Amino acid sequence: MTSLLGQKLHEAMTKWESELDPAPAHPHRFGVTNNVTRTTFNYVRDNPGCTRKQAIAALDAQGFKQASTTSLLSVMVRQRLFREEPDGTLYANVAEYKPLMQSQKKKYAKTKTKARERVEAIPTAPIAPPVEKRAQLIMHRTPDDMDKYIDTLNVRQAKILMEKLKAIFGEAV
Predict the structure, then answer these.
(1) CB-based contacts of 128: which residues, under 8 Å, 6+ apart?
(2) Domains and their CATH numbers in the chain
(3) Bridge partners, residue 27, by sequence
(4) Per-residue model confidence (pLDDT) at position 136
(5) Measured at the alpha carbon of residue 152, what is the angle toward residues 147 and 156, in degrees to the nearest 5?
């Protein structure tokens, strides 16, 4: 009787554990899709002294995109998983693959670029046109243009204009 009870208990526990959906340990990370990062690391580790070009060609033959492997090789050199000798050969600095860290430099570089663009966008020439151009603009106005201009003035601006005209032409105005 006890062995039957133990067997039933074991079956119930097994069924219960299989029904549970354990929460992932790191829900913010992406799942493994094609393992291109690990494969890229393993290729360079297993073929010390290969060049980027050789690694990209070999991984392309395995079905990985050249853009992905090129980018990963650069990131791995920058994060010191690999070292690149002056002759262009690659060597692994660690024996086992470690997940890549998020780069903080990229965020800073984007901000720096945006600031540089804002600085370059500031006009260096004076905003007002040169005196010759202003004189040409004034000379080409018609009486209708002057009427439209006077219609846009408020009372205070009209009074200032009248005083300036009086100063130019005398009190006869």
Answers:
(1) 134
(2) 33-122 (1.10.10.10), 131-169 (no CATH)
(3) none
(4) 58
(5) 110
Side-chain-side CA neighbours of residue 31 (13 Å): 2
Spans of the chain below 70 pLDDT: 1-2, 18-33, 103-141, 172-173
Which class for 140: exposed (0-12), middle (13-18), buried (19 or more C-beta within 10 A)?
A: exposed
Contact 44, 92 (CB under 8 A): yes
The pTM (predicted TM-score) of the whole model is 0.44
How far out from the chain centre does Cα 146 lie? Answer: 51
Residue 101, Ramachandran bin (φ over 0: left; ψ between -120 and 50: alpha; else beta): beta
Rounded-to-integer distance, Cα 70 and Cα 33, Å: 18
The CA-based dihedral angle spanning residues 21, 25, 28, 32, taken in that order and rounded to the nearest 10 degrees: -80
